[in-house]
User: Which sequence fits this backbone?
C-alpha cells in the first residue's frame, strides 16, 4: 500500500508538468522534446523493470540493460505511431509491459513480431501481471533511489563498512572484520548502527516504515 | 545461506542497490528522440506503402489472369474483337485513377479503349492492355503514390 510522501504527494500521483496524454500527442506530432520529457519521466521505471526481470543477465553483460531499454523506447514509439489514436489507459503500465516484452524477446533470442511494435491491448494482457504491478515496481525503485541518496550522506566510517557488503550479507563476519581490521563484535554493533541510520534516512525520504528484522543467532549484533 | 530471507530489509535493499549500480540502473537510456521519431515514422510509411503495393499486386495478377483467360476463350470461339471483360464507364486520369478501376478497363490487345477507360491507354495504342498495366503499376505504386 503506497504511503504518502512527506510533501503529501502519493508515490503514484502524476508528476507535475504536462500530462502523459498531452506529451504523447505532441510526440506523435513530431515533437521530440515531448518524447524526451516522457523518457525523463519514465526511464527509471523502464530500466528498473528490465533490471528486476533479468538481473543475472544485467550483471553479466553491462550493455544488456541499455540495449533493452533503448529497444523499449523504440517499440513504444512505433506502437504509438501505429496505434491510430489508440492510447494506453496507463502509460506506466504500458511501458512496464513493453519493457517486459522486450526482455522476454531478447531472452528467447528472437525478435518479437514487428520488432516489438505489438498492439497495446495484446502486449498489456500478455505480459502485465497483477502480482507485479507498476505501482509496486515504482515503490521499490523509489526505495532504492532513496537508499542511494542516504548512502551518499553516510560518513566515511559507515561507508567503509559498506565496502564489505558482500561478506556481511553472506554473514561471513570474520572475513569482513579481518578485512576492516576490527573485531567481529565491533563490526556487528557498528553495522547495526549503520543500518539504523540508513533506515531512519530512507523512512524520512519515502514516508515508508521499514521494520528491522528481529535478530537471531546468525543475524546482527 | 540461500536468498535474502535472512537479511534485514535495509541490508536486502543495499544488496539490491549494489547489483543495480553494477548493472547501470541509474544511468539514463541514450535515446536520440529526434532521430527515433523520424525513423519510426519512415518505417510506418514504408510498411503502409508496401502493404498497398502487395494488395494492388495481388489484384493485378488476378485481373490479368482473368483477362488472359477471357482472351483465350474469345479466340477459341472465333469471336475476335469483342471485349472479354465488360467495359465500364469510368472517369480516370493517369494520376488520379489509382483506385483499381484500371483492371476493369483491361480490354486486351484486340479490344478498344472506350469511354473513361481511354485514360488508361497510356501508350495511346487504342487498347488498355498489359503494356498499360505495367505503366499503371509504376504510376500508382512507384511514382505518384
Assistant:
Amino acid at each position: 500500500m503506497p504511503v504518502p510522501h512527506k510533501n503529501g504527494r502519493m508515490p503514484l500521483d502524476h508528476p507535475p508538468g504536462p500530462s502523459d496524454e498531452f506529451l504523447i500527442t505532441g510526440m506523435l506530432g513530431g515533437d521530440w522534446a515531448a518524447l524526451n520529457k516522457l523518457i525523463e519521466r519514465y526511464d527509471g521505471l523502464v530500466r528498473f523493470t528490465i533490471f528486476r526481470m533479468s538481473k543475472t543477465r544485467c550483471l553479466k553483460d553491462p550493455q544488456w540493460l541499455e540495449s533493452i531499454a533503448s529497444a523499449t523506447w523504440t517499440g513504444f514509439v512505433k506502437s504509438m505511431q501505429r496505434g491510430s489514436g489508440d492510447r494506453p489507459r496507463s502509460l506506466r503500465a504500458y511501458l512496464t509491459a513493453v519493457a517486459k516484452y522486450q526482455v522476454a524477446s531478447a531472452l528467447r533470442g528472437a525478435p518479437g513480431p514487428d520488432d516489438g511494435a505489438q498492439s497495446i491491448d495484446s502486449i498489456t494482457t500478455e505480459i502485465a501481471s497483477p502480482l507485479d504491478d507498476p505501482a509496486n515496481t515504482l515503490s521499490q525503485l523509489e526505495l532504492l533511489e532513496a537508499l542511494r541518496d542516504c548512502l551518499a550522506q553516510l560518513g566515511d566510517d559507515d561507508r567503509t563498512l559498506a565496502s564489505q557488503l558482500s561478506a556481511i550479507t553472506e554473514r561471513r563476519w570474520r572475513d569482513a572484520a579481518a578485512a576492516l581490521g576490527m573485531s567481529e563484535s565491533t563490526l556487528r554493533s557498528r553495522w547495526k548502527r549503520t543500518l539504523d541510520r540508513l533506515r531512519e534516512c530512507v523512512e524520512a525520504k519515502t514516508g515508508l516504515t521499514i521494520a528491522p528484522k528481529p535478530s537471531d543467532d546468525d543475524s546482527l549484533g | 545461506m540461500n536468498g535474502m530471507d535472512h537479511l534485514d530489509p535495509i541490508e536486502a535493499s543495499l544488496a539490491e542497490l549494489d547489483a543495480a549500480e553494477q548493472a547501470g540502473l541509474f544511468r539514463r537510456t541514450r535515446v536520440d528522440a529526434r532521430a527515433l521519431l523520424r525513423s519510426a515514422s519512415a518505417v510506418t510509411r514504408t510498411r503502409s506503402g508496401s502493404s498497398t503495393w502487395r494488395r494492388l499486386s495481388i489484384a493485378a495478377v488476378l485481373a490479368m489472369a482473368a483477362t488472359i483467360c477471357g482472351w483465350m476463350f474469345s479466340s477459341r470461339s472465333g469471336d475476335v474483337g469483342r471485349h472479354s471483360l465488360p467495359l465500364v464507364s469510368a472517369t480516370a486520369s493517369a494520376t488520379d485513377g489509382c483506385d483499381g478501376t484500371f483492371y476493369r478497363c483491361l480490354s486486351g490487345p484486340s479490344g478498344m479503349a472506350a469511354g473513361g477507360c481511354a485514360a488508361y491507354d497510356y501508350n495511346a495504342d487504342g487498347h488498355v492492355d498489359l503494356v498499360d498495366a505495367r505503366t499503371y503499376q509504376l504510376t500508382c505504386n512507384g511514382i505518384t503514390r
In short: Confidence is low (pLDDT under 50) at residues 77-96 of chain B. Residues 9-143 of chain B form one domain. Chain B has one domain: 9-143. Chain B touches chain A through 35 residues (CB under 8 Å).
